[in-house]
Amino acid sequence: MTLHLFSSAVMPPWGVLCVIGGFLYHLALGYFYTVGNMNPYVISYMGIKSSQSAWFSSVILAVQAISLPVGGVLAKKTGFRLPLILGILSSGAGIMLTYLTINHGLGAYVATYCILFGLGMGIPYSVIFQVASSWFPAHRATVVGIIASGFGLGALVFTPIQTRIINPYDVQPVAGKYPPEVEERIPRAFLILGGIVLGLELLGLLAMRNCPDSAAQGKLKAGSSNKTNVAEKGDIEELQSL
């Protein structure tokens, strides 16, 4: 017995690719969950206090919350690609730029690793759900769940990579300080991790397409709205002539 859910009419190829692309993009954004794993290394490298590192996640979430509406506004005016491209430039490039800013003080580090990454999370976040779910209007909850699971899996994917790059032999810090052979790997880790994030987001962007049906419906609604306005204007002019 063939399930109707898997028929080509219900699951168009571009729709499936769009969901996969959204999953990959959100998987990259799930890098956020590794900030806590990176904090001990950053504290050791920069010589900052643990209380200062507690602000990193808070800043990212605050910037994400502020920038969430921006993505929706941009998507309505320019299409979904611009918010996703801005997300790639902000998040992936922000992590990679931290290779430089980690050597220039806490403010520079927060600017690239927290503020830029927060923008990269917030601007494309809801746009991805909207584009992917438009292909499957009867299964929106399923599509959103699949894509959101990518965000949740970020820690599972990126945390082992971070540890493998920076501290493959699980060397423990002494009085909060890691040995030089561990610390020297920290800046390079940002380049590698930022490159992985950027690559996943780029793959996600390339896999996503607007649903033709939703675009047609939008034009139909716009057309019917224009016709209604014209008809109402004609009725008003007719009444005025009387």
UniProtKB/TrEMBL annotation:
The keyword Cell wall biogenesis/degradation does not apply. InterPro entries: MFS (IPR011701), MFS_dom (IPR020846), MFS_Riboflavin_Transporter (IPR052983), MFS_trans_sf (IPR036259). Its main location: membrane. Residues 14-242 form the Major facilitator superfamily (MFS) profile domain. It is found in: Membrane. The lineage of its organism: Eukaryota, Metazoa, Spiralia, Lophotrochozoa, Platyhelminthes. It comes from the Eukaryota. This is Major facilitator superfamily (MFS) profile domain-containing protein. Keywords: Membrane, Transmembrane, Transmembrane helix, Transport. GO terms for cellular component: membrane. The chain crosses the membrane at residues 12-34, 54-75, 82-102, 108-129, 141-161, 189-208. It is a multi-pass membrane protein. GO terms for molecular function: transmembrane transporter activity. It comes from Schistocephalus solidus. The keyword Membrane applies.
